[in-house]
Structure formats: structure tokens, C-alpha cells
Amino acid sequence: MNILKKNLFTLLLLSLWVSSSQAAMRELPAPNTVSPEMQKLTEAAPLPFWNLHPKDHAEWKSFVQSVAEATATELPGLREQMEVTVTPGSIAGVPVFTVTPRKIRPENSERILLHLHGGGYVLNPGETGTYEAILMAGMGGFKVLSVDYRMAPDFPYPAAMDDAVAVYRELLKTVPAEKIGVFGTSTGGGMTLALGLRAKAEGLPLPAALAPGTPWTDLTQTGDSYFVNEGVDNILVSYDGWLGEAAKVYANGHDMKDPMLSPIYGDVSGFPPTLLTTGTRDLFLSNTIRMHLKLRQAGIDADLIVFEGMSHAHYLMDPNAPETRFHFTELKKFFNQHLQ
Amino acid sequence: MNILKKNLFTLLLLSLWVSSSQAAMRELPAPNTVSPEMQKLTEAAPLPFWNLHPKDHAEWKSFVQSVAEATATELPGLREQMEVTVTPGSIAGVPVFTVTPRKIRPENSERILLHLHGGGYVLNPGETGTYEAILMAGMGGFKVLSVDYRMAPDFPYPAAMDDAVAVYRELLKTVPAEKIGVFGTSTGGGMTLALGLRAKAEGLPLPAALAPGTPWTDLTQTGDSYFVNEGVDNILVSYDGWLGEAAKVYANGHDMKDPMLSPIYGDVSGFPPTLLTTGTRDLFLSNTIRMHLKLRQAGIDADLIVFEGMSHAHYLMDPNAPETRFHFTELKKFFNQHLQ
């Protein structure tokens, strides 16, 4: 929210496009069972662009650009606060950012976390995709490699996953899979899971651990919380907004129930330990817990954290919220436990 | 639901008391991401007695009696299906039922599970409190000791917990704590956690593992899902029904934020491994996940399962639903892992 509030002028312009962003929210008391920082996020108005329906390439580009500008203004301060450096590079022809904390914990010197950013396969290009990677590197003391994968509408499915897998495949040449963890939020969480499926399909060794945060496991509007938490989640608000449009423009006519698009339909047998995170108000609550149940039914060591009162990915929206620190501390513990 | 539907005549009589049980439910599509059995439970009308407000002792007794009669008709068939025998007895002056499966798994011959039934500290007296214990014994292959603790309005706080602790204390004379697990649903889940707090306070060794299902950790109407899932959960529906009345009649003027009434306010440091269960539509979703977060923050090995589309304790309402078997299989694995 910090990210998106500061550049309010851009967002106000954006909201001129939006037909009916007001009426959609259910009236609910703000939870008094969360930190003051999280309470503020919970009380905030819905994101002004939730009900955006870009009609053509130019409108997509303008949307993506506006959000990217808002995020970009946050990055220098965040890097400073988290005491990390971010270095652009390229692996297997794919642009990446290496995020290095000031102090790498000794046990992490040979480990690496692969980061797949969120944004519906359309948002957060270039450096703006590193926001979550910076939090993880800073709070977890890990070196993080964030993949600037190609996105829709220019590059629809399977470009994003092709890029993620290309980087992972190349990384395996210098780092054993046992020392690699993969994480990401929302679309990045779905891609984290799809990466496991792709690794299996292509005969690559699986990463040692996966941490998908509120993952987009089902691109079709299937799952109970798409309905129960519609108008409750103040970040995504509804499937019937930019989110559903993003699913369409990324899938590009491909069957959205393909497991590489919607990993909930994949075979997760043999998956490594997986930690999933969501919130009680999250539109993706069902996307997350359905995958958790599926993993447990397949006998996988799968763990789940559900945050109180939290909408979609709120744990990324205020670096000073205790919930944010708790989330990344849980990820740190999880990767420390499962990476060699 | 099976339990409560068969004795429909009694329940219809009950519903004559009820002022406004219809209007309260939100209109939502039935989830297609659950089993047909669970879908049926999800589509069912709200329990007819959710909005009951017993005015005096006689109305409480009549309410308790009606629900007990409905449950009692289910028990013989359930015992047969689960292949268990149920033997009444008494421990430390407290009536108990020993539920013994036809086959006790060899590794479980010296282990025992202590069961605390649900029902808002008012419902499920006598044998009717054994329903969940029968499922656990049958599906898990454990010997289960179900406590028929005293209840409100005749015996308000702390009678129920006094009885539970008395049985546990006596049990410790013949079974080491390392071989004892404790479980229960709803009120029984809250009591499972309060038993941990009482054991600490009284210097007793803690049980080896706790499995509170959708536990009533906060008797005050505090927690986000009391609001978000009001009219979504078709079992409890709302705090402002018999549930809130039960809290009052059990607390009996005592501060409801006392940790022995609302364990969310207790100090859980030193707790044993704990597995919590809830559902996305559960009025007690926040009661459950708040306790899960609290346990993890205290460094406790705490695990969480959230069922898709599930209202309060639906996993107890159809013994043939795959979700029911999954739930008790998870509990079996959990206790097998943590009991000596």
C-alpha cells in the first residue's frame, strides 16, 4: 500500500478509467486483532485500479507503466532500509537481478533463493519486480536471484515460465538443487509451483524447498474464496477486474486448466517441502489452501500460514508491519531448515 | 448434518422459537472444489437453532435435550460402522467413556487420546459427547477416553475445565504424558488448549501433542471471521445466537478474556506440537488461525489445515465424506508422530 499510495497522482489518473470501484466492498469492521500497521492496510480503500479492463495493447502498457512508476519510487528507500545491493545481470539470456544483503549468514554462503515476482503476468517489469526479493534478502540474510521474466501482452504463455525454467536450468550448473529454494507471491507463487511441475516434466532435479505466497494456483474463477472474499479483499477485490483480464491476456487462448497455467491441476507427487501463506480476507485463500490440501494428500511435507484479517499479499505492503517481519522470518526458518 | 437432520421433527419444533433464521445467510454459489458429500453439507440450510436465545433454565434444558435426542439416534450406527465399543466409567469422580476400536494398532497399545467434546459448554451431555471420539478411534486405531464433563447452566465455569483436568491428572498416574494426546472440536478444541494452560499452571507434565479442531479460543466476539464469515458459516451462522448466549451462561459473569475461558489470551510457551484445523467458511477461522500464529510466534511446532468451503466442524457431520477421513487420517499421522 505504501508502494501504491505515494504516487497517488498517477493512480488517480488511472482511477478515471475505473467504472465502479466504490460499491464493491462489503462493510466490515477493521480487525483489532492485527498490528496497527496491518489495521491501516485493512482499512484502506480498495486499490483504485482493481476494476480496470484494458481494451488494447496501449491500455495495458499504460496500466503497467503507472504501477511500475509508483513502485520504482519505493525501491531506493527499501534497499537502504534492508541494507541490500541489487545488481542487474543476465542468465541464459534472461534478465535477472541479484539481491545481496550486507551480511550473508555464514550457513547461506553457498545457498541461493530464486525469486519469481507477482503481478498477474503483466505487472512489475524490470527492477520493480525486485520488491519482495529485497525484503527476503534483507530480513532473511539470503542471496536472492530475481527473474525479470517476459510478460503479457507482448509475450503470453508460456514465455514467463520458459524464462523462469531457463534461469533455473542454468543455475543448476553451478549450484546443486539441494541448495536452491524458490519463492514468490501471487503469480510468482503460482510460478513457483509450476516450476516444480516443469522441473519434473523436463527431468531436472527439484529445488530443495518452495515457498509460494498466496499463489495463483487456479486462473479460472474456481475456488470458494473467489466468491466468499469478493469485496472483502481490498487488494484484488474481485476476479472480475484487471485480474481476470490478465488471466486471459496471459493464457492467450490456451486452456487455463493446463497445470502450467493453473498448477492446482498438476501432479505434485515428489514435490519438496512447501510453505504456503495466505490471509483470512485473501481472494486467493482457496487458491492457497486447495494447494496445501493437495500437497498433503500427496504425502508432501506442506505447511500453511494464514494471517488474520489479511487481504491478498498485504505482507508485502508495509516493510515495517510486524506481520511482514513475521512472514519473512518464517520463510527464513523454512529455507534454513530445508536447504542443504 | 446427518446427526441433526434425521431427527427433523424435534428440530422443527425447536425452530418455532427461532425469530429470524432465514434472512441471515449470504447468497453464495456452492463450492465445486469439494467432495459431493461436503458440497451437500455446504448447500444445506443453516441449522434451525442457530438463533436460539434460551431465556431460562427450562429453555436451556429443552434445547440441550432436543439436540441430544437427535445425536443419540446416530450413535449405534456410527459405532457399528466404525467398529468400536463404548464403555462408560468414571475417573476421579468424573464420568468418562472409553472408546475402543476393534483393532488397536500395535504401536498404540500403550497410548491414549483424551477427548473433550464440543457444544458451547452446554450441548452433548452423556454418551452424545462421544460422536467425535468414535470417529477418531475408528479411523485412527487409537483408544480414546472421552470426558463427560459438567456443563452450564447447572455447572458454569470452571466446572468443565476442572473435570477435564481431574481426569488428566488421574490418567497421569498410569500413563506417562509422553503417551497421551488431547483433542476436541470447537469448545472441545478450546478446552484442549486450556488444558495445556492448566497443566502448566498446576505443574503437571504437558500432553505429548494437542489437536484442537476449529477451537473456540476467544469467547468474546473478537477476531475477523466473527464478522467476515457471519452468514457464510451455515452451522454457527453468527455469534449473536445460541453461541453468544452459551458464552454468557458458561462464563457466568467471569471475565471472558481469562485465558482459561479464552486461551488466545494465555501464555503458550512450552506447549507441545499442536495441529489445528478449520475451514474457509468457518465462523471460527480467526479463532483457529490466531492461535496458530500465536503458537508459531512462541516457537511452538504448530501445524494448520484449512478445509475448502467448510463451515464450522463440517468434518464431523458426515462420516462418509472424504474430508472427514482426511481429517482423522491427518490426526492419526500427527499423534503417531508425536506420541511416544
Describe the structure.
The structure is a homodimer of 340-residue chains. With 340 residues, the first copy, chain A, is of the alpha/beta class. The first copy, chain A, has one domain: Alpha/Beta hydrolase fold, catalytic domain (Rossmann fold). Chain A has twelve helices and eight strands. Chain A has helices spanning 2-6, 8-15, 36-43, 57-72, 75-82, 131-140, 159-171, 187-201, 225-228, 242-251, 285-297, 322-338; strands spanning 84-91, 94-101, 112-116, 144-147, 180-185, 209-213, 274-279, 302-307. In chain A, β1 (84-91) and β2 (94-101) form a beta hairpin. The radius of gyration of chain A is 18 Å and the shape is globular. Chain A starts with a helix and ends with a helix.
Structural class of chain A: alpha/beta
Report the C-alpha radius of gyration of chain A, rounded: 18 Å
- The number of domains of chain A: 1
Q: Which second-level CATH architecture of chain A applies?
A: 3-Layer(aba) Sandwich
Order of helices and strands of chain A: HHHHHEEEHEHEHEHHEHEH
Largest sheet of chain A: 8 strands, mixed
| Fraction of residues in helix of chain A | 25-40%
Keywords:
homodimer, 340 residues, alpha/beta, 8-stranded mixed sheet, 12 helices, 8 strands
Task: Itemize the secondary structure elements and their pairings.
The structure is a homodimer of 340-residue chains.
Chain A (H helix, E strand, L loop, with lengths): L1 H5 L1 H8 L20 H8 L13 H16 L2 H8 L1 E8 L2 E8 L10 E5 L14 H10 L3 E4 L11 H13 L8 E6 L1 H15 L7 E5 L11 H4 L13 H10 L22 E6 L5 H13 L4 E6 L14 H17 L2
Parallel strand pairs in A: 3-4, 3-5, 5-6, 6-7, 7-8
Antiparallel strand pairs in A: 1-2, 2-4
